[in-house]
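Listing S7. Sequence submitted for prediction.
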Amino acid sequence: MPAPLTASGPGSQVYQPPRLQAPLAQAQAPTRPMVRLQSPDEPPASRPAPLVMPTPEQLGLGGTPTARSLAVDWVAVHRRLDSLGCSCFQMEHPADGGCRIICLLPTSRAGQNHRIDVLAAGPPEAVQALLLRTAALARK
C-alpha cells in the first residue's frame, strides 16, 4: 500500500480527490407525486348484487310433470298422424304463452300438403284441436 502524501513545507497543500456530490439543482428539486395508474377500490355499497341463476324448476324445466302435460297420450297422437300420412309435426311454445302445433298432411294432388296450424292455451287443448281438424280433412 502506498504511503499517504504529506505536506513538507510552508504553503504546500495535500492533494485531496474531489468528492462526488449531487449537483445543487438536483438536491433541491421538489419531489414529484407518484402515479400508480390504478383507480382506488369502489366502496362495497356501489357494487351490484351477485347474479343468481334460477333453478330448472323455476324455469319450468325438469321436476315433476304438470297435470296438463300428463293428459296427452303422445303415442296415440303420433299413431293417428302417421295413419293420415303426416309428413311434418312441430310444436312450439310462443313467448306470449300457449302452445302452437303445426303439421302437414298430404292432399290428393302430388307435391301439395294441407298445413294445419293450431294455437291453444296448452298442449292438451292444441292436440285436441289438431285431431278435430285432421278428422275433418280425412272426411273430405
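Caption to Listing S7: primary sequence and predicted C-alpha cells for the chain studied. The chain has a mean pLDDT of 77. The helical segments are 24-27, 67-70, 74-83, 123-139.
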